Amino acid sequence: MELSRIILYTDIDGTAASTRNGKSDVSEKTKEALRAFVKEGGLFSVASGRSHVSVRKLFPDTEISLPMIEANGAAVFDEKSGTYLSTHVLAADVKKEIYEYVQCHRELHLTAMDMLESRKVILQDDRDSVYIDYPRPMISPAEFFAEKMLKCAFIAEKEAIDAMVRIMNGYCLSHPVKAERSADIYLEVFDAQAGKQNGIREVRKKPGLADRMLVCVGDYYNDLGMLEEADTAACPKDAADEVKQLCDYISPYGPEGALADIIAYLRRR
C-alpha cells in the first residue's frame, strides 16, 4: 500500500514509547520509521494522555502532520496554527467531589492536567512525598479548583484501581464524565465529550482527509474507542487482551519496535 494514502494516529506510552524508572523514550528505530513514513507522504500524529508540550519532548524532530489529540481527547491541538480545535474541561463540582473522595481514601493519589502539564495534587498528608510512579510538579488544592483542568487521574496499586473502576462506572452514570484506565495503576477522568475517538472524529472533519485510510495504534483500554474508529487497528504484542481482539494486526514487538513493524506491515499490504 502507498503510505501517502494513510493517516496514522498512535498512542504513546506503551505503544510508541517505553517507560522505565519514570522516564519515557522513543527508540531510534521508531523515529526512523516515522521519518520515512512522513517522507513517503503519510500523515502522522498522536492520540495520547499527554499534553502537546510533553509530546514534543519525545518527538523533537518528527513532523507531526495533523492535530494532536491530547489529554485522552479532552483537547485537540493544531501545532501548525498554535490553536486548539477543541477543549473540554472538568466541571467544578466533579473536581471537588473527586478531591474529597481521594482525601478520604489513603490508598489513592491524584494528578491533574492543565493545557501544558500533569501535576500531582497536594493532599496535605504524607502522601505528598510518596510516589506510585514518579515525581511530578505539585499543585495546591486551591490551584486545582481554580484552574481549568483537561483531566485528572487516580493513581494507586492495581487492586485499588480495580475497585475505583467499579466505583467510577457508577459515578459516570450520573455525572458528565468518562473514566478510562490507561494502565494498571492509572484511571483517568475527563469530560464526557472527550475521549480519543471524539478527537479522531474532530480531526477527520478537516478537508482533504476523506479519501485516506485511518490507521490507529494503541495498547490499553483508553485506546479502545479510537481503535474502533479506525479503518485498520493495530497494537504491540503486550497490549491488553480487549485491545488485541479489536485489532487487524498485532505486532510481534513491544513499544521499542512495534510502530516501525506496523508501518512495514502497512507498506506490504
CATH architecture of the largest domain: 3-Layer(aba) Sandwich
CATH superfamily of the largest domain: HAD superfamily/HAD-like
User: Which structural class do the helices and strands define?
Assistant: alpha/beta
Helix content: 25-40%
End-to-end span in angstroms? Answer: 5 Å
Main sheet, how many strands, which sense, barrel? 6 strands, mixed
Rounded to an integer, what's the Rg over CA atoms?
18 Å
Q: What is the overall silhouette?
A: globular
Order of helices and strands: EEEHEHEEEHEEEHEHEEHEHEHEH
CATH class of the largest domain: Alpha Beta
Looking across the biggest beta sheet, what order are the strands in? 10-9-8-11-13-12
Please tell me the total number of domains.
Answer: 2
CATH topology of the largest domain: Rossmann fold
